[in-house]
Design the sequence.
């Protein structure tokens, strides 16, 4: 995702240029006698800033890729790749491997190109609510991982930087869901590290069996004591076939909108 790829940039100005990376759907398998099992719904974590509670289906890994352009604080940022491989280890545990993005930043006529850090993480279901059992109690998951010091000097870190997210999701109806994330991480600051935080809330809608959309509001807090202005993001997903989903998203910072917007596209492939 854009946020996780860029938040560890050595330059604080470049780090502030980081903006991030879908409708979260619970996985399930339906088996009919004497027939091949039907595919579970494709549950991508793209392209939203937040992460959904769903776990990749065992035996059917998901590959998520994309690209994002952002304009913020006088800098043009292009992120190419955004690759995440999600592998279900059990119905409640998912392994996530993130390869480095290729980053191009043009702040005030200064050129900066290079690779971000790779990463490894696991998502674990803490509380699973059966479909239709409750509209009040949330699905709960925990995502925890770390970056790996593999990136370039400009965009990478020379140390592993941990992060964790508490993820909640409510099924308000068969087609409408509410989600929230509380995110903690560490970033390079000078010769050491500092805590960073983010809070996200979003609404997702499955308009048809193929077309979905989401709207979310989020804010981040870097090493400074102040929260950044909130950003609003809207995105769409389209299921081209049962194992291939396309997506697009755009967002804007709610303060100084001319210097805080982004847009991107990508896809999710299930194997």
Sequence:
């Amino acid at each position: 995702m854009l946020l996780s790829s860029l938040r560890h940039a050595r330059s604080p100005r470049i780090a502030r240029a980081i903006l991030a990376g879908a409708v979260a759907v619970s996985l399930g398998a339906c088996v009919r006698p004497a027939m091949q099992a039907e595919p579970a719904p494709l549950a991508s974590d793209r392209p939203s800033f937040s992460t959904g509670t769903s776990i990749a289906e065992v035996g059917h890994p998901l590959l998520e890729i994309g690209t994002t352009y952002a304009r913020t604080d006088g800098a043009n940022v292009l992120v190419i790749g955004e690759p995440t491989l999600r592998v279900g280890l059990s119905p409640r545990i998912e392994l996530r491997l993130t390869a480095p993005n290729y980053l191009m930043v043009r702040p005030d006529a200064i050129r900066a190109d290079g690779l971000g850090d790779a990463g490894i993480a696991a998502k674990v279901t803490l509380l699973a609510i059966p479909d239709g059992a409750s509209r009040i109690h949330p699905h709960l998951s925990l995502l925890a991982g770390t970056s790996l010091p593999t990136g370039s000097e400009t965009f990478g870190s020379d140390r592993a930087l941990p992060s964790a997210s508490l993820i909640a999701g409510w099924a308000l109806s068969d087609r409408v869901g509410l989600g929230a994330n509380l995110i903690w991480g560490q970033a390079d600051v000078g010769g050491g590290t500092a805590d960073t935080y983010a809070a996200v809330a979003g609404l997702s809608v499955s308009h048809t069996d193929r077309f979905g959309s989401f709207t979310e509001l989020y804010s981040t807090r870097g090493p400074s004591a102040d929260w950044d202005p909130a950003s609003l993001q809207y995105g769409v997903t389209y299921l081209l076939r049962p194992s291939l989903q396309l997506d697009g998203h755009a967002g804007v910072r709610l303060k100084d909108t001319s210097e805080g917007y982004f847009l991107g596209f990508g896809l999710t492939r299930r194997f």
The two ends are 20 Å apart (CA to CA). The longest helix spans residues 2-6.
